[in-house]
């Protein structure tokens, strides 16, 4: 059970790292203040979560990395258009919502 919790924490941390990375790009069409508030929120949540997993930073989840790399490639192919960013935003939101449902699933 403890290993599973640590694994989940590593997964959540990896998703937060990649989310902050992709939204940290200067080319997004969102208002600067809104984007910075979102990025800072993700970074703060990641910092608070980090001690829970007590994991080395070299651990990563290839599926998460591949997913965000695909989104990055998609943005590049679409020249960082607002429409492309809306798709990335929706995908990221769905990913975070699924994660929330999974983490709260057994606690309700």
Automatic annotation (TrEMBL):
GO terms for biological process: defense response to virus. It comes from the Eukaryota. It is found in: Secreted. SUPFAM superfamilies: 4-helical cytokines. One of its GO terms (molecular function) is cytokine activity. InterPro entries: 4_helix_cytokine-like_core, Interferon_alpha/beta/delta. GO terms for cellular component: extracellular space. Pfam families: Interferon. Its main location: secreted. Keywords: Antiviral defense, Cytokine, Disulfide bond, Secreted. This is Uncharacterized protein. It comes from Acipenser ruthenus. The lineage of its organism: Eukaryota, Metazoa, Chordata, Craniata, Vertebrata.
């Amino acid at each position: 059970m403890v290993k599973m919790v640590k694994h989940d924490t590593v997964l959540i941390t990896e998703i937060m790292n990649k989310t902050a990375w992709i939204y940290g790009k200067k080319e997004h069409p969102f208002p600067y203040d809104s984007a910075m508030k979102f990025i800072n929120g993700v970074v703060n949540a990641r910092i608070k979560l980090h001690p829970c997993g007590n994991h080395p930073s070299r651990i990563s989840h290839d599926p998460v990395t591949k997913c965000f790399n695909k989104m990055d490639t998609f943005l590049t192919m679409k020249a960082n258009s607002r429409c492309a960013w809306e798709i990335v935003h929706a995908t990221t939101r769905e990913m975070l919502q699924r994660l929330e449902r999974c983490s709260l699933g057994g606690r309700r």
